[in-house]
Amino acid sequence: MAKVLAALRSHWKKSTFGACLLGWGGHWLYGKHCDNLLRRAACQEAQAFGNQLIPATMPLKKATVFLNPAACKGKAGNLFEKNAAPILHLSGLDVTVVKTDYEGQAKKLLELMENTDLIIIAGGDGTVQEVITGLLRRADEAAFSKIPIGFIPLGKTCTLSHTLYPESTNQVQHITNATLAILKGETVPLDVLQIKGEKEQPVFAVSGLRWGSYRDAGVKVSKYWYLGPLKTKAAHFFSTFKEWPQKHQAALMYLGPTERPPEEPEEKPSRPPLYVRLYRRLRSYWSSPKGGLEFPQEVAPEDWEEVKLSTTELSIATRNRHLDLTRTEDFMDICIEAESVSKGQFVHRGSQKMRDPHMCPEGSQCIQASRCILQLPEGTEGSFGIDNEEYEAMPVEVKLLPRKLRFFCDPRMREQLLQAAVQ
């Protein structure tokens, strides 16, 4: 023992390095063990759903998974196979996995998709945006938009995770919780933005649209990877070397919020008997003026308002991030940020916007609208960020589609939303 201690003391540098390596290896193995326990517990919970008896005449529910293997720097495929796929297969669902090979493929595949009971999106914000765009471009979108959608967060940016699932620092737990939420069946309605250019087909978004200097600087952060934790500040700092202040000028026309209609019941009432329908029609005929002739009611003209803007950044966002199930009006948030911002404020706010892209800083003009038209000057260059996907900047019309899609969510999140509404 004395010889061992003497050897360690005489080679203290190697001993210290070995102890650090041993400690790191132990911590890594312990983390892997904890991840396996989480997977096992999730699979046991999923198996309880799979063991439920169903009538012999009832077919299995079909689930179509759109998986983007390139998400999360190419790790999404492995993450799905290890953490989500076993849960889905044990649940008793008839699972079909569709892997996308290139950008935009999901939109085309949605046009060919046959009937399914569930749609599951496995990827990041880009995959979500592609799938809902393909879904809502279909000729029969009115029927297909009623299919519930599950989201398994596998991408680098997963904005919907903050709305649908509890926060978790453990990636395995986050993925298994999201997959189990699909089996539990709780859903929440989410708003969708329809963004249409002059010639292009409409694009749909669940988060929003960004146009401005913060977005342009944010997409360049990865170029400064060698600066480690300083890469975000560096990207925004170097962008201030361009023409300053960076102004984005446009004209904005918008309509105010609309009143939310009562939510339709999930089960439609049964059709009344024939004699009841005949009686109602005759009563409606004789009670109408001038022998049943109905005159069209005058439709009030839409009250458009116009704003000339010169801003550092413009964002148009849904209320999905701050979901309120009991609000009485439907609207999207338009944030026009002040053009007078110092370089120091620009760098500081840029770091904040990397965490919350649609935050509206103090001093900005905030507008609530149900529909808007953004007119850009001729020769305007740059790009829009639509759900963190890049599109060429052009004049667009943005229309809110309230409660258009239903997404599966963790029951705990839904309970929190209902409790917040009561308070």
TrEMBL record:
Descriptive protein name: Acylglycerol kinase, mitochondrial
Under PANTHER family, the record lists:
ACYLGLYCEROL KINASE, MITOCHONDRIAL (PTHR12358:SF31), SPHINGOSINE KINASE (PTHR12358)
Nucleotide-binding recorded as keyword: yes
- Pathway(s) annotated for this protein in UniProt: Glycerolipid metabolism; Lipid metabolism; glycerolipid metabolism
Family membership noted in the UniProt record: Belongs to the AGK family.
Q: Name one GO molecular function term.
A: ATP binding
CDD domains under this entry?
A: GATase1
* Compartments (UniProt record): Mitochondrion inner membrane; Mitochondrion intermembrane space
EC number(s): the record gives 2.7.1.107, 2.7.1.138, 2.7.1.94
Source organism per entry reads Orthonyx spaldingii
Membrane disposition: Peripheral membrane protein
